[in-house]
Amino acid sequence: MKLQFGFLIAIIVLAAFSRIIPHMPNFSPLGAIGLFGAAHFDKKWKAFLIPIAATWLSDLFINNVIYAQYYPQFTWFYEGFYWQYGSYLLITFAGLIIFNKISVSKVLLGGLASTTIFFTVSNFGCWLGSTFYPQNFTGLTACYVAGIPFLTGTLLSDLFYSVVLFGGYYLLQSKISFFKLDNVRYA
Q: 183 vs 1, 81, 100, CA distance in Å?
């Protein structure tokens, strides 16, 4: 079980670091990582902690190596990170509800739920306390409308990475029995 656990962590960390590959705006594995963790870890705390830790490690690398010129010093957390991380925790929670049994329809539902949660939470966070948007319903609406162009990348990535992570692991565990997890049921 420890080797299987290590393999799940490796899959999640690898997916998180795929963020360094050039991509369209908001095309990210992070929502799918939360869903995958929720469906595959036997302990709920692991489902929440490991995807968030992998996200944070990839953020450290991206902010301090790739985009170091934009930060005057080493950056542990970027401004407003709590809105994104909060959305990832909510996505993981949704995954715990959705994935009592894993099926294609539930993977697609999870991807749509992930997109909806991220869009709702991150744009609310962008609006709240912003000097760019008025702090009223009109400003909130304007912020959500401004976020619509980024919704495509989020939706495509949530669906793509969910299919890759869940489908890849399904194929792996169906071919090599060692990777079958007692707590995971594929339909």
A: 11, 32, 9
pLDDT digits (tens, 9 = 90+) for 5-46: 888 888 898 888 898 888 889 999 999 999 999 999 999 999
Three-state SS sequence of 80-108:
CHHHHHHHHHHHHHHHHHHCCCECHHHHH
- CATH classification at residue 87: 1.10.1760
**pLDDT tens-digit map of 127-139:** 998 899 999 999 9
Q: pLDDT band for 61, please (50, 70, 90 cuts).
A: very high
Residues in Cβ contact with 132 at an 8 Å cutoff, skipping those fewer than 6 apart: none
Instruction: Kindly state whether residue 135 falls inside one of the protein's structural domains.
Output: yes
Q: Are 28 and 51 in contact (CB under 8 A)?
A: no
Give domain status of residue 184, yes or no.
no
Spatial neighbors of 91 by CB under 8 A, at least 6 apart, are: 31, 34, 35, 113, 114, 117, 118
Number of domains in the chain: 1
Domain membership of residue 88 as a residue range:
2-179
Whether pTM exceeds 0.85: yes
